[in-house]
Design brief:
Number of helices: 12
Shape: elongated
Distance between the termini: 40 Å
Order of helices and strands: HHHHHHHHHHHH
Number of strands: 0
Structural class: mainly alpha
Helix content: over 70%
């Protein structure tokens, strides 16, 4: 019982880190474009993250808990995987860098599985890594296309004031969608390693979703500054295009049980909308710093 309590604490710590680092992925573009205050954005994140975790978090949770390492890991190994991932993301958040908790936890689970002599499904691992490589390019292309599609209709609107109001609601809706997708995908990173210990998945989803929300409330402002304006200058249409494309991609991969980086998805999308204005509009040094 004591060992399980320590695992819950470690899972909550990882969840807190995800919320602190990835809140920016949900609202950074909205805040950066001036359409949403940080305080209102964080409330939006908290609600939709928990909803995503409870409604669709079980798919990635299963992959992290049972799909990569196919045998039950020792409690100490699970604790080590969670703690190492949590400390890594804490450091990145301190330096205002959006990083991939998915990569940290998948690498940690695979690493402790190998160290413990447990069977590791390398074909599953390879599929996940391939998605990681392709995902930011996919979201960048989607964001570029969505921007031009909506800009095409915008040029034909006779009453710009009405379009501004519609666009504001689209930005808010897409921010909520990113938060929902974050909850659906990243709750598995927080509590997935505990999923093969017999704890009901809905309780794990609630624990992870709540921890994500608390992390967003308490420490999410640091990385929000980077995503909101540290990569390229965003207008409302750019913010919507970036958020919508990232949310669609992360949600899709959540449904098929593949843990992906919400950070890479959003950063790829922000670079994609930045390309609309040309390469010079992108702060390449910041992109390289995040990539490294």
């Amino acid at each position: 019982m004591v060992e399980l309590a320590f695992l819950f604490l470690a899972g909550a710590y990882v969840g807190w880190n995800i919320g602190a680092n990835d809140a920016a992925n949900c609202i950074g573009t909205s805040v950066g474009s001036g359409l949403l205050s940080y305080r209102k954005g964080i409330i939006l994140v908290g609600v939709f993250v928990i909803a995503g975790a409870l409604l669709q978090g079980q798919h990635v949770m299963h992959t992290i808990g049972k799909g990569i390492v196919t045998a039950e890991l020792p409690v100490a190994a699970v604790f080590a995987a969670l703690l190492s991932a949590g400390l890594f993301v804490t450091s990145a958040t301190f330096f205002k860098l959006p990083v991939s908790t998915s990569q940290a936890i998948v690498g940690g689970v695979a690493g402790v599985g190998l160290a413990a002599g447990a069977p590791v499904d390398f074909s599953k691992l390879l599929n996940i890594v391939m998605v990681w490589v392709l995902d930011p390019f996919l979201t960048g292309l989607m964001a570029f296309g969505i921007y031009h599609l909506f800009a095409f209709f915008l040029r034909r609107v006779q009453r710009p004031g009405r379009w501004d109001a519609i666009l504001k609601w689209l930005v808010l809706a897409s921010a909520g969608y990113v938060a929902f997708s974050l909850g659906a995908n990243d709750v598995g990173n927080a509590v997935g390693p505990i999923a093969n210990l017999g704890v009901p998945s809905h309780w794990l989803a609630l624990l992870g979703g709540t921890a994500l929300s608390i992390g967003a409330f308490t420490f999410g402002h640091r990385v929000t500054e980077t995503v909101g304006g540290g990569i390229t200058v965003l207008d409302p249409l750019s913010a919507f295009a970036a958020q919508a494309s990232a949310a669609i991609a992360v949600h899709f991969f959540s449904i098929i049980g593949i843990p992906v980086s919400t950070s890479q998805s959003v950063v790829g999308a922000v670079v994609g909308v930045g390309m609309v204005k040309g390469v010079r509009a992108i702060k390449r040094g910041r992109v390289v710093q995040i990539a490294v």
